């Protein structure tokens, strides 16, 4: 007769603890869950903000001249004729598609708000990477167009449409090559504008123009 096989008892599944909704433990778990949700939401907003910043700086990256640097007047022209007008075609399409007497679409309203906000920012003082500074331009060319923290290494100018001849260094740049940089050169002499940037095809800026304002 074959020996009988003794089966090991199946371990009981661990019961999930259930806490009374008014207990301190339930309140603690609720606070932990809420904190995790808030942290996840904050991280999502931070990632979206960094992506938007990368798109904006990406525009100026694509505005870098093939060689050398921009003059201050050329930098103003890029902002005035390319940056501030990048949504004009889309805005006109929205206006043309709206039937007479109909309210503006959400997209049209947002495009108008973006344009007004950026024009006011440019009028009162807009902070941009210093594309007139050789060391900054050389450093900017090395950017991977993704890492926003790299931008903090660059020198920035504050310029405005109210006084185009004045440029103030708002951030000196944290990279060691900029620590001994020359002071901002005077811009009171006549400058001949190179039309290469302004006459460049839109495809040169397409990678940033298409995404910098996010979904509309």
Automatic annotation (TrEMBL):
Annotated Gene3D superfamilies: Translation machinery-associated protein 16-like (1.20.1440.170)
Region feature Disordered, mapped onto this chain: 1-33
Top-level lineage group: Eukaryota
Biased composition range(s): Basic and acidic residues: 16-25
InterPro entries: Tma16 (IPR021346), Tma16_sf (IPR038356)
GO cellular component terms listed in the entry, alphabetical order: nucleus
Secretion signal, residue range per the UniProt entry: none
Similarity comment: family membership: Belongs to the TMA16 family.
Record's protein name: Translation machinery-associated protein 16
Lineage: Eukaryota, Fungi, Dikarya, Basidiomycota, Agaricomycotina
């Amino acid at each position: 007769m074959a020996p009988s096989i003794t089966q090991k008892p199946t371990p009981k599944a661990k019961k999930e603890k259930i806490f009374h909704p008014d207990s301190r433990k339930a309140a603690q778990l609720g606070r932990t869950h809420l904190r995790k949700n808030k942290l996840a939401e904050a991280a999502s907003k931070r990632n979206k903000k960094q992506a938007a910043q990368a798109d904006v700086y990406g525009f100026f990256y694509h505005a870098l001249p093939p060689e050398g640097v921009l003059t201050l007047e050329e930098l103003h022209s890029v902002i005035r004729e390319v940056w501030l007008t990048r949504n004009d075609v889309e805005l006109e399409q929205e206006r043309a598609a709206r039937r007479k007497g109909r309210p503006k679409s959400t997209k049209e309203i947002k495009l108008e708000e973006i344009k007004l906000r950026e024009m006011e920012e440019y009028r009162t003082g807009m902070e941009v990477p210093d594309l007139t500074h050789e060391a900054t331009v050389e450093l900017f060319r090395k950017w991977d167009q993704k890492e926003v923290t790299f931008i903090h290494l660059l020198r920035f100018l504050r310029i405005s449409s109210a006084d185009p001849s004045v440029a103030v260094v708002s951030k000196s740049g944290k990279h060691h090559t900029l620590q001994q940089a020359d002071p901002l050169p005077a811009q009171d002499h006549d400058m001949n504008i190179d039309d290469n940037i302004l006459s460049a095809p839109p495809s040169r800026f397409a990678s940033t123009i298409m995404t910098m304002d996010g979904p509309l």
